[in-house]
Amino acid sequence: MNIKTLIRTSLIALGLTLAPLGVAAQNLFSAAILVNDQAITNYELKQRTMFLEAMRFPGVPDELAPKQLIEERLKKAAADQLGIRVSEEELQFELESFAQRFNVAFDEFAAELERAGISVDTPREFIANQLLWREVVRARFGAQANVDEAQVERSANAKKS
């Protein structure tokens, strides 16, 4: 066997060995679920699953992750329709508050997540979507939840009688 044949055979073998890695990388960022023409990628599913496991959310992470991500896409669409946005300051405040539940600053929390293979974007998206939905609910139902003084007095007087 000459050197050209040996090199060619080695390169073909190497190519066949590495080919699945390219496919895996493509599959990681390919659409796993479509919600209103928006893709939820395999990467997002994996990240959310790992995040749920790390946070010890109740339930089965593999089942919760797609459900949460689908709901978040729908909630974000509702926020977009109402023109609701979350400011970077508000998001950062909530991220710090979230990290405080674990008695750490957000930078330390993010570093721990990164060490576990979880992108800092995962909790950012999780919290941002919670904030958006809170504002959607406030915008849609806030007026119904506001009680004026007259209603409070009528209710108090009704209880006295």
Q: What distinguishing features does this structure have?
A:
161 residues; two-stranded antiparallel ribbon; single chain; Triger factor/SurA peptide-binding fold
Task: Please give a quick description of this structure.
The chain has helices at residues 3-28, 42-55, 61-82, 88-100, 106-115, 121-145, 149-160, and strands at 31-35, 38-41.
Structure, explained:
This protein is mainly alpha-helical and 161 residues long. It has one domain (3-142): Triger factor/SurA peptide-binding fold (Orthogonal Bundle), CATH 1.10.4030.10. The chain is 76% helix and 6% strand. Helix 3 crosses helix 6 (121-145). The radius of gyration is 25 Å and the shape is extended. Residues 13-25 have low confidence and may be disordered.
Total helical segments? 7
Given the helix and strand composition, which structural class is it? mainly alpha
Give a short account of the largest sheet: 2 strands, antiparallel
> What is the alpha-carbon Rg in Å?
25 Å
- The CATH architecture designation is Orthogonal Bundle
Element pattern in H and E: HEEHHHHHH
Let me know the CATH homologous superfamily: Porin chaperone SurA, peptide-binding domain
List the helices and strands and how they pair.
Blueprint (H helix, E strand, L loop, with lengths): L2 H26 L2 E5 L2 E4 H14 L5 H22 L5 H13 L5 H10 L5 H25 L3 H12 L1
Antiparallel strand pairs: 1-2
Helix pairs in contact: 2-3, 3-6, 4-6
